[in-house]
Amino acid sequence: MASPTTVLETQTSAAFPAVDAAAELHPAAAGNDFAVDPISSDLAKSKEFKMEAEATEERKRKEKEAAANSLKRTIVIAAVVVAGIGAVFAITKKLREK
């Protein structure tokens, strides 16, 4: 069996590497260079692109609806004006006959 000092020497030689305590306690002083996970980054970018595409499609759909509503409104107003003018002509014709 090995003596306690031999075991202790064996364990210390295979110990963890030294740690920079200042960098661990103050990470802002060490710099902000963090490793970026490429898969997560790609997923985030694809999600952003998807959201932008959906927003663009929604905006185009709303523009088409606005144009259609404007056209409908114009047609209804024109029909009311024509009906009003027709009513005025009919009333004046009846008044001329009497």
Automatic annotation (TrEMBL):
| Protein source organism | Stephania cephalantha
Write out the transmembrane intervals. 74-92
Q: Which UniProt keywords apply?
A: Membrane, Transmembrane, Transmembrane helix
Q: What is this protein called?
A: Uncharacterized protein
PANTHER family tied to this protein: TRANSMEMBRANE PROTEIN
Asked if the Swiss-Prot or TrEMBL record annotates the protein with the keyword Transmembrane helix, the reply is yes
